[in-house]
Design a protein that fits this description.
The chain is an alpha+beta fold. It contains 13 helices and 24 strands. It has 3 domains: about 180 residues, Orthogonal Bundle (Lysozyme); about 150 residues, Peptidoglycan recognition protein-like (Lysozyme-like); about 130 residues, Jelly Rolls. The strands form 7 sheets. Strands 5-9-8-11-7-12 form a 6-stranded mixed sheet, sandwiched between helices. A 5-stranded antiparallel sheet has the order 14-17-22-19-20. A 4-stranded antiparallel sheet has the order 13-24-18-21, with no helix packed on it. A hairpin with a 2-residue loop joins strand 19 and strand 20. It is globular and about 65 Å long.
């Protein structure tokens, strides 16, 4: 009882201090507090790992509060505090901090404080004691709960995205999280199906996963016999990938789209059959005649619109046009903002229509330069005799792959290539996923400014190209990417293949 009272007293004190600061400052002054400092203050006030708090916020919003405007699911601010008929984290934050909901919606500093308070309340509910709270890996179930997902599979998808960011690192809006080793304790989610690695296949588009929307959010139909399909409509979700999928499964939303595309790697999930009428255009006539494609992100923040997203979405649009005889032009491939009577502005000013249509009409356009190296590429792969060879997993890139146990020395497996010129390059990795593989595998990238290490959880997300970042590389032939054994993560470290693109 004493500890509970102490906890409540600390929360009240923190809220009163925040209220005093906000009330005493001139209008807009609280927003002048650097966001980096806001995360540090909130983390300290509520005993939440600072880097975890940042990674969660980046997964939700890329640290953009959008001026207090709500997301599609009613989420506000950099921490995406939600207020909708089924989720009330905004109201929960107001209760915990004593700050008005209006302040939490519009002020980034208050919003971060509110998000940290909600996270800490979930940690208390799930029994994280003071020692456990110091380990970011122990917060996995707390993060999953914060995502308000409609199913355990989506909760895992959400939490995995946050922990992947801890491994990759974050740098945005003056806030930085260094890439780090974190072994996520998935707890009750350890046996939950990984939607990245074990996908139910789309009935209409082979590369996509299948996660059906709530049956009340679309109309069952028999297109094309009942309605001709002659449009593709491009949307931006105003929210995260996992959050959008969950929202379309929520009966309270009354919205859906046929497909959702992820920012980081272009992964696609189908949620409504092509033959059925999704509620995405805000215009019944256009709903009946179109395929709706949602893209993860916010219209005000261009960092969501990655090359991987453009290419993946363009391939999907091209397939829909070929399947239904839709002309590949801007009369028939339109933005949500072009629908008659539209009140939405997506995909917005940062959507690169010229680039997108080039990908749609130009077929499979390769990058300006790309090199793929796997463990069997002659003269381009090297590893010590401590690395074994296996063909165990069907998710492997080629005939086999290398593996080794973690040790307190680097002993890396290296991938070499001839980088044609100095500049910025995307690095992707391929590995088979397995529960026995490493929870924090270190990938070393030899950048122009020195080696950078990115940590990847190889227990999930395998069997596909996975972007670990964009790096400035020197020209020449050298070891560009390595896989190190020096990790505190558990399980075999896997070296399979890398792809470097400009």
């Amino acid at each position: 009882m004493t500890s509970t009272l102490s906890r409540l007293s600390a929360v009240v004190a923190c809220a009163l201090a925040a209220l005093f600061t906000l009330a005493a400052a001139p209008a807009g002054a609280a927003r002048d507090v650097p966001l980096n400092e806001a995360f540090a203050r909130a983390a300290a006030a509520h005993d939440v790992p600072r880097d975890l708090l940042v990674a969660l916020a980046y997964a939700e919003t890329h640290l953009d509060g959008h001026g207090g405007a709500p997301s599609a699911s009613g989420g506000y601010g950099v921490m995406h505090l939600v207020s909708n008929p089924t989720t009330r984290t905004l109201e929960k934050a107001a209760e915990l901090t004593g700050l008005p909901a209006a302040t939490l919606r519009a002020d980034d500093v208050a919003n971060v404080l509110g998000g940290a308070a909600v996270l800490r309340s979930y940690a208390d509910q799930l029994g994280l004691d003071e020692t456990a709270r110091k380990d970011p890996g122990r917060w996995y179930a707390v993060v999953a709960k914060y995502g308000n997902a409609s199913t355990p599979e989506l909760a895992r998808l959400y939490a995995d995205a946050v922990y992947e960011l801890l491994g990759l690192g974050v740098k945005a809006a003056g806030v930085k999280v260094s890439a780090q080793e974190v072994t996520a304790d998935r707890g009750p989610y350890a046996m939950t199906r990984d939607l990245n690695a074990q996908r139910a296949l789309s009935p209409d588009y082979g590369p996509a996963a299948w996660v059906p929307a709530n049956s009340g959010n679309y109309t069952v139909s028999s297109r094309e016999s009942t309605y001709a399909i002659d449009r593709v409509i491009i949307h931006v979700t105003q929210g995260s990938y996992a959050g959008t999928i969950s929202w379309f499964q929520n009966a309270a939303s009354n919205v859906s789209a046929h497909y959702v595309v992820r920012s980081s790697d272009g992964a696609v999930t189908q949620m409504v059959r092509d033959k059925d009428v999704a509620y995405h255009a805000g215009n019944w006539g256009y709903n009946t005649r179109s395929i709706g494609i949602e893209h993860e992100g916010f219209v005000s923040e261009p960092s969501w619109f990655t090359d991987a997203m453009y290419r993946s979405s363009a391939a999907l649009t091209r397939a829909m046009c070929d399947k239904y005889g839709i002309p590949k032009d801007r009369t028939h491939i339109i933005g949500h903002n072009q629908v008659p009577g539209a009140t939405h502005t997506d995909p917005g000013q940062y959507w690169d229509w010229n680039r997108y249509m080039q990908y749609v009409t130009g077929g499979s356009i390769p990058p300006a330069w790309t090199a793929t190296v796997d463990n069997s590429t002659a003269g381009a792969f090297s590893a010590s005799g401590n690395w074994g060879t296996s063909a165990y997993s069907a998710q492997r890139h080629g005939a086999d792959y290398r593996y080794a146990g973690p040790v307190a020395s680097s002993d890396p497996a290296w991938y070499s290539t001839n980088v044609p010129s100095a500049g910025s390059y995307r690095v992707e990795v391929w590995y088979p996923a397995d529960p026995g593989y490493n929870s924090s595998a270190p990938y070393i990238v030899a950048t122009a400014s020195g080696n950078q290490t990115v940590y990847v959880d190889q227990r999930a997300g395998g069997g596909a190209w996975r972007t670990i970042g964009t790096f400035t590389l020197n020209a020449g032939t050298y070891n560009v990417v390595g896989v190190s054994r020096w990790t505190s993560g558990t399980g075999y470290v896997i070296a399979d293949a890398v792809r470097i693109s400009r």
